[in-house]
Amino acid sequence: MKIAALLRSAALVSAVALLPVTTAGLAAVEGRAAPQFGKLFATYQRIKASYVDEVEDEVLVRGAIEGMLAALDPHSTYLDGASLQRLETMIDGNYSGLGLSVTTSDGAVKVISPMRGSPAEKAGVKAGDYITHLDGQLIYGLELDEAVSRMRGEAGTDIRLTIFRPGRDEPFDVTVTRGVITLEPVTSDLKPGRVGLITVNEFSRNVGKNVNDAIKELRRKAGGKLTGIVLDLRSNPGGSLDEAVALSDLFLSDGVIVSQRGRIKRENAVYNAETVYKGDAAAGIPMVVLIDAGSASASEIVAGALQDRHRALVMGERSFGKGSVQTLLPLTRDSAIKLTTARYYTPGGRSVQEGGIEPDITVPQLSDPDRVTRAKLRYRESDLRRHLVNEVNLDDRELEADTKQDPRFAATPEELKKQGIEDFQLHYALETLRRTNGAQLTAK
Predict the structure, then answer these.
(1) Which residues form the catalytic set?
(2) Domain boundaries in the chain?
(3) CATH assignment of 186-436?
(4) For position 231, what pLDDT does the model report?
């Protein structure tokens, strides 16, 4: 994939900027940091002269770049070759594999979340699982790209995952049949009581338009009268800033949606309503936005905007807390760096970095039998090494308040299953909207 095409379509919470490296800029850097660059070059020379095996220059230069970016924050990275191809695949949204979003944690492959309806989800793989072996072969310590490439394969073929799940004494095996993964950014369904459910799985191309179309279709199915809308952003890792703004603007008719502030002036920007869509596409219809610990980045922009503008009630669990903006900066025709360049802020001036979006009503996922263990071991932005700190001091006790048991929610998964409730958070949101009887529903 050519870098220019990637820049046009990259799903980043950022406006892509092209920053040429000038001779004057290099001269300024050299003047300020010559002693430090001297150390770098001396290290390079020592390795070339004395390392036990010969090392290619490309390996050393790549390692130096990756080391510089890793010293900054978890989201600044170097992209080339396989990593650029992986980003291309994510953007295209079609590939054969398991349908897993994964990361590395201390050398282990950790599941962020299985994609909804994917082969992995159907096989029982869950967020927070660690994958230790593929078809009996240990993958601990592998580069993430290599582990991901091994998991992908021709649709219809099987792969055996060995999983360690926190809370269980022993690892266990799960066989997953690979399938063609076609990401559906937006799905919708009309629920009893003429309540529309709109699920946004990622912020890729045309999400705003797709949600607008979903509202029209739901209205048609409801005979022209929707009594409520649930906007489900759970386990949505984010994506395009433009689509987050478009989706927010769909429901807002005035005011600020989000702002971003960086160290340099060109990174400062304010995004206002009425720039993408005119008016509120669901005017007069009460809304609930569902979030959880997997709702990050663009999802938090939308939830924060609708919460601060008193357009929707936010329910679920505190979001991930990624309040930073990444810009894709090309280095060569086939390489680039993804660099954190700004923080973003909700209409009320809140930074969600570290703290995330706190729901108006905290609703635990009581239907998950592993909920208690998962709550203890889940991780958010604040748990990542070298994460950006929030500019406002946060009280750790407040951040962990959502782990405390709420006496209002005491039903067990078994009790809920007998009632036919498989997704308690969604059930609670739907029931709340049905009880409003058409009244506007916002946090005070």
Answers:
(1) 297, 308, 322
(2) 94-182, 186-436
(3) 3.90.226.10
(4) 98
